[in-house]
């Protein structure tokens, strides 16, 4: 499982972790779940990741930012990177995968 990257987003007491691989044209989502233990263990070392969804909850983009995630005056996150998802699907269709 080489070249797999992770990003996290904390929601109340759960850490949602996205596992992804950079590919031509964007990223391939491999997993998205709040049961991936790596996200809890490495939360502060991993980038912040937010999935952009359509109104029917299909993922279209992964937004990454690093550091303490302070917002700039234009509303973007510090160091923000926006990556299109090459395997769009319903936000809960990715599951925990092998992680």
List the topology elements.
Elements (H helix, E strand, L loop, with lengths): L3 E8 L2 E10 L2 E8 L3 H5 L6 E6 L5 E7 L15 E4 L15
Antiparallel strand pairs: 1-2, 2-3, 4-5, 5-6
- Provide the succession of SSEs: EEEHEEE
Low-confidence stretches are none
The main pleated sheet reads as: 3 strands, antiparallel
Radius of gyration: 13 Å
Q: Can you give the mean pLDDT?
A: 87
Structural account:
- It is a single chain.
- With 99 residues, the protein is mainly beta.
- It has one domain (4-84).
- The protein contains one helix and six strands.
- The chain has one helix at residues 37-41; strands at residues 4-11, 14-23, 26-33, 48-53, 59-65, 81-84.
- The strands form two sheets. Strands 1-2-3 form a three-stranded antiparallel beta sheet. A three-stranded antiparallel beta sheet has the order 4-5-6, with no helix packed on it.
- Strand 1 (4-11) and strand 2 (14-23) form a beta hairpin.
- The chain is globular, with a radius of gyration of 13 Å.
- The mean pLDDT is 87.
What attributes characterize this protein structure?
3-stranded antiparallel sheet; 99 residues; 6 strands; globular; mainly beta; 5% helix
Summarize the structure.
The protein is mainly beta and about 100 residues long. It is built from one helix and six strands.
């Amino acid at each position: 499982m080489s070249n797999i990257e992770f990003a996290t987003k904390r929601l109340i007491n759960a850490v949602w972790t996205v596992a992804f691989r950079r590919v031509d044209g964007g990223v391939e989502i491999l997993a998205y779940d709040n049961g991936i233990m790596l996200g809890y263990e490495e939360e502060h070392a991993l980038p912040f990741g937010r999935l952009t969804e359509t109104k029917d909850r299909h993922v279209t983009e992964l937004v990454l930012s690093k550091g303490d995630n302070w917002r700039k005056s234009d509303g973007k996150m510090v160091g923000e990177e926006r990556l299109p998802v090459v395997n769009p699907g319903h936000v809960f269709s990715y599951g925990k995968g092998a992680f």
